[in-house]
Amino acid sequence: MTTRTCRATRRVLEAYHDGELPVEEQVAIQSHLRHCENCAAERRWLREAGSILRDAAVAHAPSDPEAVGRNLLARIPVERQRAFGRRIRASFDDMRLVWPALGATVATLACLASGLGFMRLVIREQPAISDGKSARRMRADVSVCSSTCN
Question: Is 150 helix (H, G, I), strand (E, B) or coil?
């Protein structure tokens, strides 16, 4: 079983609280919560906030359900933008994944640069064919070599 960091645990703590995570991830989070008092306090806070919200929802039922639907539809684009920013930040939460990706990118760029450098060197050192005689001589050399080499 892998150990979780507090940051990674807190990122999925709400999904854990709502029971939306796979079993193996729930087990990892439970193990972390047993050993980390700060994350366990955050979980207790989520429980208390959930009970307060449930009590408030019962007391303040909406009088116009269609208005609630319109408000939700208006918030969808804003939430999508926020979700994109969260995904970008979440990709840098665990630096163990960022460093290999960065190293692979640098290695790829180095290989590409060295390949282009070799291509440029080869092109620069090739003899330039300026007249038809040189081209005919080269073809003749190739045909002589192929007939004598076989």
Answer: coil
Q: Each residue of 92-124: pLDDT tens digit? A: 777 777 888 899 999 999 999 999 999 988 887
d(CA 18, CA 103): 37
Burial of 39-60, coded b for 16+ CB within 10 Å and e otherwise, reads: beebbeeeeeeeeeeeeeeeee
Residue 85 has a pLDDT of: 76
Domain coordinates of the chain in residue numbers?
1-61, 64-93, 95-126
- Mean of the per-residue pLDDT values of the chain: 81
Q: Which two tokens stand for residue 107?
A: 């290695």
In sequence order, the 6+-apart residues with CB closer than 8 A to the CB of 42 are 10, 13
Contacts 24+ apart (CB under 8 A), 49-54: 50/17
